[in-house]
Write a structure and sequence with these properties.
Layout (H helix, E strand, L loop, with lengths): L2 E5 L4 H10 L4 E6 L2 H11 L7 E5 L5 H12 L4 E6 L14 H29 L3 E5 L12 H21 L5 E6 L7 H5 L14 H13 L4 E3 L2 H10 L4 H10 L3
Parallel strand pairs: 1-2, 1-4, 2-3, 4-5, 5-6, 6-7
Helix pairs in contact: 1-7, 3-4, 4-5
């Protein structure tokens, strides 16, 4: 059985990737808290077809990223990497602690770059494999009040689209997954009041992961999940950028 690595595996989209991939793969789960990963193993272990292994690492830390890089680079059975780990902060950039903003860049960007490099080097040699980098529809828009988060997701989207084209000749599938509002613990960690957003804007993790894996099957470079999100992004592309910025600034997280 081949191996899958999933970062940010203890909740939300990452946890759902673990559930689905465990039907066909051994899944190596990466998250900061070992207790949370243990809970996932207890929940999914009875129905898993492969091995579930917890790897507690903090991807804001250089030595932790290097450890995971080596594991992915040298895994001869690697079949899929899902770079899902990420977090956001809320507030005016100049008022937020700089250290937390830098950590956000380390997790949302640096880890994605490093682990993508490890996986693609592995995949290119054997001319097979899949990489999913979780971006966000926030990567299409400015986000006053969440500037670093939107900027990191814009990087991930652009970066991953480029990788998609580079890897096509080698039979390697690469996807930028761009969900919108998705039920998880992400918003609680970021201090975002979920009740401020209408119910129709929300998706569950099951839907996001299903759409992602369906798009991966046909090697779509970008998967924007849900008709509402797709329509919203299409609509904003016809608006003047100054208006998009103004409208974005009116949304208080």
């Amino acid at each position: 059985m081949k191996n899958a690595f999933v970062t940010g595996a203890s909740q939300g989209i990452g946890k759902e990737f673990v559930r689905v991939l465990s039907k066909t793969h051994n899944v190596f789960m990466i998250s900061r808290k070992e207790n949370d990963l243990t809970s996932v193993i207890k929940e999914f272990g009875p129905t898993s077809k492969g091995i579930l292994k917890a790897i507690p690492l903090d991807l804001s830390k250089k030595d932790n990223r290097e450890q995971l890089y080596s594991l992915i680079k040298t895994d001869s059975d690697l079949d899929i990497l899902v770079n899902n780990a990420g977090f956001g902060t809320v507030g005016e950039f100049c008022d937020l602690p700089l250290n937390s903003e830098i950590d956000e860049i380390h997790v949302n960007v640096k880890a994605v770059v490093e682990l993508s490099h490890a996986a693609l080097g592995n995949f290119k040699k054997k001319k097979s494999g899949s990489l999913i980098n979780v971006a966000s529809i926030a990567g299409y828009l400015p986000a006053p009040g969440s500037a670093i988060y939107a900027a990191t997701k814009a990087f991930v989207k652009s970066f991953t689209e480029s990788l998609h084209e580079e890897m096509k000749p080698y039979g390697v599938r690469v996807q930028a997954l761009c969900p919108g509002l998705t039920h998880s613990d992400f918003h609680q960690r970021a201090g975002i009041d979920k009740s401020k957003f209408p119910k129709f804007l929300w998706q569950d993790s099951e839907t996001v992961v299903r759409e992602s894996l369906e798009a991966l099957e046909i090697n779509e470079a970008v998967c924007i999940t849900g008709m509402v999100n797709q329509s919203a992004i299409t609509f904003t592309e016809f608006l003047p950028r100054s208006l998009v910025r103004k409208l974005s600034g009116m949304i208080k997280l």
